[in-house]
Design goal:
The chain has 14 helices and 13 strands. The chain is α/β, with parallel strands linked by helices. It has 4 domains: 4-104, GTPase HflX, N-terminal domain (Rossmann fold, 3-Layer(aba) Sandwich); 108-164, no CATH class; 185-355, 3-Layer(aba) Sandwich (Rossmann fold), CATH 3.40.50.300; 359-412, 2-Layer Sandwich (Alpha-Beta Plaits). The strands form 3 sheets. The chain has a 6-stranded mixed β-sheet with strand order 6-7-5-8-9-10, sandwiched between helices. A 4-stranded parallel β-sheet has the order 2-1-3-4, with helices on both faces. Strand 12 and strand 13 form a beta hairpin. Helix 3 crosses helix 5 (108-134) and helix 4 runs antiparallel to helix 5. The termini are far apart. Mean pLDDT is 84; it is low at 141-147.
Length: 415
């Protein structure tokens, strides 16, 4: 259901992403305004003439304009001037994204993370409102009307501390779960990448699950973990929040407890939509790689180009050549797949297996009895059984990590 009509203001003539963001929040974009300038106007982001032009359009439009979206990051003073001038709500890009986050958050952790980011965002704006209110001006739309915004500022500080404590508790519990999984022989593989690249669809395909997949931005805000349906080695696959360019550090920090799933993974699959324009792919790839560095990823990264079914073979060849010329993929592990058509999925699984750390191969001799059969079943669930033969003894060749190897040997010594 549409919330109403919106207009967009930008200093960039590419409106595609900001329109998609506005539409994700169920606004219909009625008109876009582009002003070419090197730097935003100090007072009102755009020049005074453009402000008057937009004000006139809002007043005369037959459609009821409910929202003005600025494709950029507004300073509190700029936001105040624009809201007062247009007499309707004004969102900058960050506030728009946070509103989408709030709409998508369906779990406790996601809701806490979004609320923390919103409070971080609001703090400087509330300070501006306090300053304006003390100067005798109307406090503005964000404050909700005439009330003590300084009380609200104090509430923000207290709420942020409480939320951070709650998120730390969730984070600590997840760390214990991870430690248990590692000790049980599970490998952790995380899906990362730009929003809408197909991460959730890949999770469903590899795990044979039916996690909800939606063709909209930020449909995944919380982590979702599933076991890969793969007889070779036990792997847990985690879907994470999608990257997006130019997010402030405090938003990334608010989602730290989710993003750390990428940091601690044994292997990271960086999912990229290869069907987009080459410049868009290059831009998103650079942003994603930078984000992985920022998060602190040191594990192997497999760049997984998805949606090859949406482009021709010649176009794919051309894009591969472009990537090569730009040097973006030098010394990188790469695979080209289609989740939809299940193309090259086995190649991806093989690459994941070959990228897993600390794999050791060893042989084990066991007596032939019921206890050893139970152990063999247990091993099959947790490790790669390369070979097994039955003679006077059961001889089994196993590949797994060193922690699980020690556990298997410890169990076998009881026979």
């Amino acid at each position: 259901m549409k919330k109403g009509h919106a207009i967009i203001i930008s200093l960039n003539d590419d409106f595609s992403e900001i329109i998609e963001l506005a539409e994700s929040l169920n606004y219909k974009v009625e008109k876009t305004y582009f002003q070419k300038r090197e730097q935003p106007d100090v007072k009102s982001f755009i020049g005074s003439g453009k402000v008057e032009e937009i004000k006139k359009f809002i007043e005369e439009s037959k459609k009821s304009i409910k929202l003005v979206v600025v494709d950029g990051e507004l300073k509190p003073s700029q936001w105040f001037v624009l809201e007062k001038k247009f007499d309707i709500e004004v969102y900058d890009r960050i506030r728009l994204i946070l509103a989408i986050f709030e709409q998508r958050a369906d779990r406790k952790e996601a809701r806490l993370q979004v609320k923390l980011a919103q409070l971080q965002y609001e703090r400087p704006f509330v300070k501006e409102l306090i300053h304006r209110a003390r100067s005798g001006e109307h406090p503005g739309f964000m404050a909700g009307g005439e009330y003590q915004v300084d009380d609200y500022y104090e509430m923000i500080k207290k709420s942020m501390k409480k939320i951070k404590d709650n998120l730390k508790n969730i984070r600590d519990k997840r760390e214990l779960q991870r430690q248990y999984r590692h000790k049980s022989g599970f490998y952790l593989v995380s899906l990362a990448g730009y929003t809408n690249a197909g991460k959730s669809s890949l999770l469903n395909l590899l795990s044979d699950e039916k996690v909800k997949v939606e063709g909209r931005l930020f449909s995944t805000l919380s982590t979702t973990t599933r076991k890969i349906k793969n007889k070779d080695v036990p792997i847990l696959l985690t879907d994470t929040v999608g990257f997006i360019q130019n997010l402030p550090a405090y938003i990334i920090d608010a989602f730290h407890s989710t993003l750390e799933e990428i940091e601690v993974a044994d292997v990271v699959l960086l999912i990229v939509d290869v069907s987009e324009k080459i410049d868009t792919i290059v831009n998103k790839l650079k942003i994603s790689l930078d984000e992985l560095v920022e998060i602190g990823v040191t594990s192997p990264v497999i760049i997984t180009f998805n949606k090859i079914d949406k482009i021709s073979e010649n176009e794919l060849i051309e894009k591969k050549e472009d990537f090569k010329k730009k040097g973006l993929l030098n010394n990188k592990k790469i695979v080209y797949i289609s989740v939809k058509e299940k193309i090259n999925i086995n190649s991806l699984l093989k690459l994941i297996h070959n990228s897993l750390p600390r794999l050791v191969k060893f042989k084990l001799k066991l007596p032939i009895n019921n206890d050893s059969q139970s152990l063999i079943s247990w091993i099959y669930e947790r490790a790669l059984v390369i070979d097994i033969s039955y003679n006077e003894y059961v001889t089994i060749t196993i590949e797994c990590d060193s922690i699980l190897k020690d556990k298997i040997i410890s169990k076998s010594n009881k026979f």
